[in-house]
From TrEMBL:
InterPro entries: Cys/Met-Metab_PyrdxlP-dep_enz, PyrdxlP-dep_Trfase, PyrdxlP-dep_Trfase_major, PyrdxlP-dep_Trfase_small
Cross-referenced Pfam families: Cys_Met_Meta_PP
Gene3D superfamilies: Aspartate Aminotransferase, domain 1, Type I PLP-dependent aspartate aminotransferase-like (Major domain)
Family: Belongs to the trans-sulfuration enzymes family.
Cofactors, names only: pyridoxal 5'-phosphate
Keywords linked to the UniProt accession: Aminotransferase, Pyridoxal phosphate, Transferase
Cited SUPFAM superfamilies: PLP-dependent transferases
CDD domains: CGS_like
GO molecular function terms listed in the Swiss-Prot or TrEMBL record: transaminase activity
Taxonomy of the source species: Bacteria, Bacillati, Actinomycetota, Actinomycetes, Streptosporangiales
Organism of this sequence: Nonomuraea antimicrobica
Protein name, entry field: PLP-dependent aspartate aminotransferase family protein
Domain of life of the organism encoding this protein: Bacteria
Length: 394
């Protein structure tokens, strides 16, 4: 496997992903080990390996060389100890929540959340008797006040979906650590290149690898990265029983996409800056929610914590839902589709798609309006993107 110099930067690590050594040499590109299992000569070694996350490869649900290469690559990028790749981003979220919580436990989550996460938290409350308290993402005092004796976990997003609020990771993670509760951070919007949750005290970092890490809208996957080896091993044992394992081919595609992450993120961020700035001055737009704008409530915090403001933002149209639907029907270059983080620009209406499971009150509390449109900015020429957006608004 790779032996990086200790001061290798993330941009370099994305290019030099782990690869196996085979009889003194190694392939330039990580191979796909498309097999469901592995053959042993030694029964004792097989039995031992089935109980260890670092043991010999046994069965695809336990581990796979291609999948492990992805886990090592992302763990290295995030600065974590180890990682578990899953079949989807929600698979990673559920793996961590179900692997760390038990019925009756209490968790604290930020108010502005991805709709799938919010819906799953509601499901856990009804199905398993968990309790959840929601607090602002930038209020450590509110977190401290919300903690109970049965609180086990705080759940945050580095940059929230879709309102792009930036969590006060240093403040929130410090409170969690002081009170002996775990902090879990979804770093999907920021990627390891823009946000570094472990450096601010996080215990677990999550990604939907479907998004920026793979980057080409041809993968569904997720990953959970752990700061502590003991916590990783605890969740790994649950993971092999849960069965949310990543597929080797999807892992290979993600590794291939990961190698261009740094270049893509530069273009995503610069294109988002141009669109957000121009939309902020457009008469049809009442608000733009991008942390790179001085008008955004997270602007100062984002400048301190992030090395870039991201490629996704939302904006509110003056005409409400009718204006939003008209806009999405009128774009020609941008595509009306779910997900984000690919090379193409995508738009959607959060209230009826990604956050459709939220009640009217939950949508209001999250800041999502009837005229809110989310745009995941791709890597096309920025002037072509603006021309498309402008004609759709017109």
């Amino acid at each position: 496997m790779n032996d990086f110099p200790p001061d290798a930067r993330p941009e370099t690590k994305t290019v030099h992903v782990p690869r196996p050594v085979i009889e003194g040499s190694s392939p330039i590109s990580m191979p796909i080990y498309q097999t469901s299992g592995f053959v042993f000569d030694d029964p004792a070694l097989m039995a031992e390996s089935m109980g260890r996350p670092d043991g010999a490869y046994v069965y695809g649900r336990y581990s796979n060389p291609t999948v492990r290469a992805l886990e090592e690559a992302v763990a290295g990028l995030e600065g974590g100890t180890a990682a578990i790749a899953t079949g989807s981003g929600m698979g990673a979220i559920n793996l961590v929540l179900l692997g760390l919580l038990k019925p009756g436990d209490h968790l604290v989550a930020q108010r502005s959340l991805y709709g799938g996460t919010a819906a799953m938290l509601n499901e856990l409350v009804g199905r398993f008797g968990f309790t959840v308290t929601y607090v602002p993402e930038n209020d450590p005092a509110a977190l401290r006040a919300a903690v109970r004796p049965e609180t086990r976990l705080v759940y945050l997003e580095t940059i929230s979906n879709p309102m792009t609020l930036v969590a006060d990771l240093p403040g929130m993670c410090q409170v969690a650590r002081e009170l002996g509760i775990l902090s879990v951070v979804d770093n999907t919007f920021a990627t390891p290149l823009l946000g570094r949750p472990f450096e601010h005290g996080a215990d677990v970092v999550l990604h939907s690898t479907t998004k920026y890490l793979s980057g080409h809208t041809d993968v569904v996957g997720g990953i959970a990265v752990f700061a502590d080896a003991g916590l990783y091993e605890k969740v790994w044992h649950f993971a092999i029983e849960l069965g949310a394992s990543a597929d080797p081919f999807a892992a290979w595609l993600t590794l291939r996409g990961l190698q261009t992450l740094a270049l893509r993120m530069e273009r995503h961020c610069s294109n988002a800056h141009l669109l957000a700035t121009r939309l902020a001055g457009h008469p049809a737009v009442t608000a733009v929610h991008w942390p790179g704008l001085p008008s955004h409530p997270s602007y100062e915090l984002a400048g301190k914590l992030l090395s870039g403001f991201g490629g996704v933002f939302s904006f509110d149209l003056a005409g409400g839902r009718e204006a939003g639907e008209r806009f999405m029907k009128s774009v020609r270059l941008a595509l009306l589709a779910p997900s984000l983080g690919g090379v193409e620009t995508l738009v959607l209406h959060p209230a009826t798609t990604s956050h459709r499971a939220l009640s009217a009150e939950e949508l209001r509390r999250s800041g999502i309006g009837e005229g809110t449109v989310r745009i995941a900015v791709g890597i096309e020429h920025p002037e072509d993107l603006w021309a498309d957006v402008a004609q759709a608004l017109a």
